[in-house]
């Protein structure tokens, strides 16, 4: 989405909105349909020939831009269009045109039937299932698209994207051309592009297309069913432990590495903002891809291959075949530095890893390294962190100051806080081993010990809960407590 809704909806308004949207979904074969009366202000029957031609020209241009994404190349169909009767809007019913658009469905069905998505998703992917969707919630809207949360008949919660009838793109088009159906077709191309790109660009860090609904009779209507994620909230992310922030940055690097040489070639993300991403089970995923462009920029000379940012400019040479080779990769990587690495990567990192992180910041900030070297640097840091090799001067003797109580845990309660913690009201940190946990406890003046259980982070590290006291101990075969010698505690039967 290009813009999130900035003003919170009241409860009553949200209920009304969900009811209206659910009603629209239940009609018209399971997709959100734009009703003529939403915009019909008398202009529809006064569409002039010049307006029709102008709108038709824009639709043709959008359509040509999409052909390359359907199968990697155009199908060889000639594009001819028939104008509708005066006063009746655009008559885009030419057989060739309709058949070309309908190929989208064939691509989708093939992807679903060949196992491109899970069997459960395939069973909930079509227009028929969308009619039975329930429990709608408004998630957001932008210039082009409306996003709802819904529940499919099999109980799967998904995100449902459709053309936003109240969006800026739709309103401007109707005001300019007075043709609701023609404008819907024009605006829907961004959603169609997103559906096709999500099928072609399948990667763990791109949201999964769970299904779609596309129909062209009586008018084009499109909806996309996507994997449901949580919006990426940078302010909240800044308060999480470094390990989780590193995970987000590494997810992004792996995505950019894939986009640099994807099945569509080099892909550039023109709208590179945190709002284009969601988080699914801790993994960063690209969710808004309609502004992506495949293929390098064409050029005649080197100065055509220039990237301009607010504080820096970069360039690539124009190749002999007239392509700005590597320019997409540079744009993506520098935007990752601007919007993600700068805020998430270096802060509160383990001190021994700081020089390696500084190297990443420098090389991506001046683009002295490409995505391959950047991914290698991230992988090296991850290896050092997971293996514990980043730890220095951590002595085994630290544990001699602690009494080990196996088979016990503490009663759930808040204790002293530390930052950044996995729990806001306590001090819960990830540790490589118990020696590191003992070292952390010794560095906290309040700490009298720590507990560990079978919880693990995404790197396989243990979670240790540091405590200022142990008033109640509860038997638990999956837990252990390390208490400083001399600290008091009381067991509970």
Structure overview:
The chain has helices at 11-26, 36-39, 49-71, 95-113, 119-122, 127-130, 168-177, 180-200, 234-238, 242-260, 327-344, 354-365, 371-387, 434-443; strands at residues 134-141, 145-151, 157-163, 209-215, 221-227, 230-231, 267-269, 277-280, 283-286, 292-294, 306-308, 313-315, 402-410, 427-431, 449-456, 462-467, 470-484, 489-491. The radius of gyration is 27 Å and the shape is globular. It starts with 10 loop residues before the first helix and ends with a strand. α10 (242-260) packs antiparallel against α11 (327-344) and α10 (242-260) packs antiparallel against α13. The longest helix is centred in the N-terminal third of the chain and has 23 residues, at 49-71. With 493 residues, it is α+β, with helices and mostly antiparallel strands. A hairpin with a 2-residue loop joins β8 (277-280) and β9. Strands 13, 14, 15, 16, 17 and 18 form a six-stranded mixed beta sheet that branches. A five-stranded antiparallel beta sheet has the order 1-2-3-5-4, sandwiched between helices. Strands 6-8-9 form a three-stranded antiparallel beta sheet.
């Amino acid at each position: 989405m290009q813009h999130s809704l900035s003003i919170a909806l009241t409860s009553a308004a949200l209920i009304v909105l969900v009811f209206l949207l659910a009603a629209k979904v239940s009609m018209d074969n399971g997709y959100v349909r734009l009703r003529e009366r939403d915009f019909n202000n008398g202009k529809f029957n006064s569409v002039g020939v010049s307006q029709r031609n102008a709108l038709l020209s824009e639709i043709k241009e959008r359509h040509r831009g999409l052909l390359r994404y359907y199968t990697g190349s155009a199908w060889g169909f000639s594009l001819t269009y028939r104008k509708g009767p005066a006063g009746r809007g655009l008559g885009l019913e030419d057989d060739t045109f309709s058949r070309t658009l309908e190929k989208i469905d064939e691509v989708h069905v093939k992807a679903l039937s060949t196992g491109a998505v899970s069997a459960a998703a395939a069973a909930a992917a079509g227009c028929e299932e969308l009619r039975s969707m329930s429990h709608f919630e408004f998630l957001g809207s932008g210039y082009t698209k409306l996003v709802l949360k819904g529940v499919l008949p099999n109980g799967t919660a998904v995100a449902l994207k459709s053309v936003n009838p109240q969006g800026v793109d739709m309103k401007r088009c109707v005001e300019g051309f007075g043709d609701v159906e023609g404008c819907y077709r024009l605006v829907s191309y961004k959603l169609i592009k997103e559906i096709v790109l999500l099928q072609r660009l399948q990667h763990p860090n791109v949201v999964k297309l769970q299904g779609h609904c596309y129909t062209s009779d009586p008018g084009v209507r499109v909806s996309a069913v996507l994997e449901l994620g949580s919006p990426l909230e940078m302010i909240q992310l800044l308060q999480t432990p470094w390990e989780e922030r590193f995970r987000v940055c590494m997810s992004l690097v792996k995505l950019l590495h894939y986009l640099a040489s994807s099945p569509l070639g080099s892909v550039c993300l023109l709208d590179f903002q945190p709002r284009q991403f969601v988080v699914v089970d801790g993994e960063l995923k690209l969710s808004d891809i309609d502004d992506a462009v495949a293929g390098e920029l064409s050029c005649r000379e080197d100065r055509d291959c220039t990237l301009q940012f607010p504080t820096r400019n970069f360039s690539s040479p124009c190749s002999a075949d007239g392509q700005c080779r590597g320019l997409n990769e540079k744009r993506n990587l520098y935007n990752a530095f601007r919007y993600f690495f700068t805020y998430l990567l270096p802060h509160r990192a383990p001190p021994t890893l700081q020089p390696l992180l500084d190297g990443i910041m420098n090389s991506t900030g001046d683009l002295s390294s490409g995505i391959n070297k950047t991914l290698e640097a991230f992988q090296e840091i991850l290896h050092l962190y997971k293996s514990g090799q980043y730890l220095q001067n951590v002595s085994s003797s630290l544990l001699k100051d602690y009494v080990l109580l196996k088979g016990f845990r503490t009663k759930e309660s808040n204790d002293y806080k530390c930052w950044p913690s996995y729990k806001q009201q306590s001090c819960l940190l990830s540790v490589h081993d118990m020696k590191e946990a003992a070292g952390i406890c010794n560095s906290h003046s309040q700490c009298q010990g720590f507990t560990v259980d079978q919880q693990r982070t995404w790197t396989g590290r243990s979670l240790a809960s540091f405590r200022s006291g142990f008033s109640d101990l509860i038997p638990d075969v999956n837990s252990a407590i390390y208490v400083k010698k001399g600290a008091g505690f009381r067991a509970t039967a």
